[in-house]
Amino acid sequence: MELRLKTKVAVITGGEQGIGKQTALLFAQEGADLALLGLMSDGLELVRKEIETLSRKCLVYRVNVANEDQVNEAIEASLKNLGGIDVLINNASVLGATAPVAELNPQSWTEEIGVNLTGPFLCCKAVLPGMIKQRSGKIINITSVAGQRAYPLRSSYAVSKAGLIALTRTLAAEVGSYNIRVNAIAPGPVSGNRMKRVIEERARSTGQSIAEVEASYLHALALGRMVEEGDVARMALFLASKEGDNITGQVFNICSGYKLE
């Protein structure tokens, strides 16, 4: 069976762990060459070695996606060494603070908006000239169901993810005539260390036990279980492959039926 991403080049931010790592490995298995942007050099190198065992190219760059110069340098280097970029996945994000708005540190707010929203904007801006020139491209933004509901104690995270949905839809309308498709994936609670930290912080802030907080998340899931990182990676593969060629401006909730009211 033909590889679904044969000859394609994908850039993935936050590629050193979690959803980013799983997506990078899946894309490599399907024939893509990769450029991974992230802050954890050791993690990036480990993923690079795994990808190279699959006989695919993989470049890694230590980048804060909220820094325009760092983003531009990494994208320019990727274009020089890998050729045109076919897919951009904006996955990098920070969890930020768990606190009511009245007590939220403005610095925390600024950091979350910077990485979670300004970062994807800067990455899109960096890859778009090349995609417009080649009249083809896929941009996939990893947002969250948190951007579609009230999410007490997590305002800055929710706002950053809601903004990313708005960016997705607006950009899709702007660049569709160039055959550039822009979509978003909105995971619900994803099993792993990241969600464990969210639960621990909410327990600390509310005075509940960790078990009580975890139970409250599970209760909100129609399937009664959290999403796996691989679930999100497979949705990204669908959108990046030929099957997603006529999909743009959409948000796909991979969330085990998370209640959004």
Describe the protein in words.
The chain is an alpha/beta fold. It has 2 domains: 9-188 and 228-253, NAD(P)-binding Rossmann-like Domain (Rossmann fold), CATH 3.40.50; 191-226. It is built from 8 helices and 7 strands; from the N terminus they run βαβαβαβαβαβαααβ. It has helices at 18-29, 41-52, 68-82, 106-134, 155-175, 193-206, 210-219, 229-240, and strands at residues 9-13, 33-38, 58-62, 87-90, 137-142, 180-187, 251-254. A 7-stranded parallel sheet has the order 3-2-1-4-5-6-7, with helices on both faces. Helix 4 packs parallel to helix 5.
What is the CATH architecture assignment of the largest domain?
3-Layer(aba) Sandwich
Determine the fraction of residues in helical runs and give it as a percent range.
Answer: 40-55%
Major sheet attributes:
7 strands, parallel
β-sheet strand percentage: 5-15%
Overall body shape:
globular
Number of helices: 8
Strand order of the largest sheet: 3-2-1-4-5-6-7
Tally of separate domains: 2
Runs in which pLDDT lies below 50 for 5 or more consecutive residues are none
User: What's the CATH first level of the largest domain?
Assistant: Alpha Beta
Which homologous superfamily in CATH is the superfamily of the largest domain? Answer: NAD(P)-binding Rossmann-like Domain
Please state the CA-atom Rg, rounded to the nearest Å.
Answer: 18 Å
User: What is the strand tally?
Assistant: 7
What is the average per-residue confidence, as pLDDT, rounded to a whole number?
A: 96
Give keywords.
2 domains, globular, single chain, alpha/beta, Rossmann fold, 7-stranded parallel β-sheet, 261 residues
